[in-house]
Amino acid sequence: MIAEPGLRWILTLLFAAGGAFCLYRCARCPGFSGRVADAVHAAMCAGMVTMAWPATMTFARMPQVVLFAVAAMWFAVSTALGFGHGRLPGAHHALMMAGMAWMAFVMPSAMAGMTMSATAMGGEHAGMDMGDAGMTMTGHAPAHVVVVAVVLAVVFLVAGIAWLARAIDHARTVARPGRREIGLAMEGVMSLGMAVMAVAMI
């Protein structure tokens, strides 16, 4: 799904770090609601890593759709009932899970309009041996996928910046940033990563 290898690795490392932190926080969190939230966020990070790599981007596609759709409903209901960390964070979590479910569901149709083509290194000699060629994505996703992807990308970009700004504000008020500040920063990183993945579907 991500054509650029460098960006693939950056996203992989960021989501791996986010998933590891969510699992750590899940083990330390005493409340059931908090543990569920961290567990599904860790699963979301794992799902984003698989989506970043062409060989695994459709791995367990329908189980992911079901898992993240249920997680989206969980966050929506718990937020409506006043559980969790507030209405805006809860709504953001619900949207992230819904976005994950949507990405996994539309992956085949998004990829249907795109083809993989071999491009020789340096743009020379299209007939070079495949071992010396790089793979590029050509084509476009269907219009309805593009529209939703653009909306999600904008929302997640704005939310990610807001989370990071909040993390910085909190870090300025303490002598040493702790789990709370790292958690806010990770929320921002995950949201920005979702924005990048949404753009990659266009």
Question: Can you give me a brief rundown of this structure?
Answer:
Strands 1-2 form a two-stranded antiparallel ribbon. 71% of the residues lie in helices and 7% in strands.
Which descriptors would you attach to this protein?
two-stranded antiparallel ribbon; 6 helices; 71% helix; 7% strand
Draw up the topology in text:
Layout: H1 5-28, H2 32-52, H3 61-80, H4 87-112, E1 114-120, E2 133-139, H5 143-172, H6 179-200
Antiparallel strand pairs: 1-2
Helix pairs in contact: 1-2, 1-6, 2-3, 2-6, 3-4, 4-5, 5-6
What report would you give on this structure?
There is one protein chain. This protein has 202 residues and is mainly α. It has 6 helices and 2 strands. It has helices spanning 5-28, 32-52, 61-80, 87-112, 143-172, 179-200, and strands at residues 114-120, 133-139. Helix 2 (32-52) packs antiparallel against helix 3 (61-80), helix 4 runs antiparallel to helix 5 and helix 5 runs antiparallel to helix 6. The radius of gyration is 18 Å and the shape is globular. Mean pLDDT is 81; it is low at 116-138.
Topology order in helix (H) and strand (E) letters: HHHHEEHH
| Helix residue percentage | over 70%
> In angstroms, what is the radius of gyration?
18 Å
For the biggest β-sheet, the strand order reads 1-2
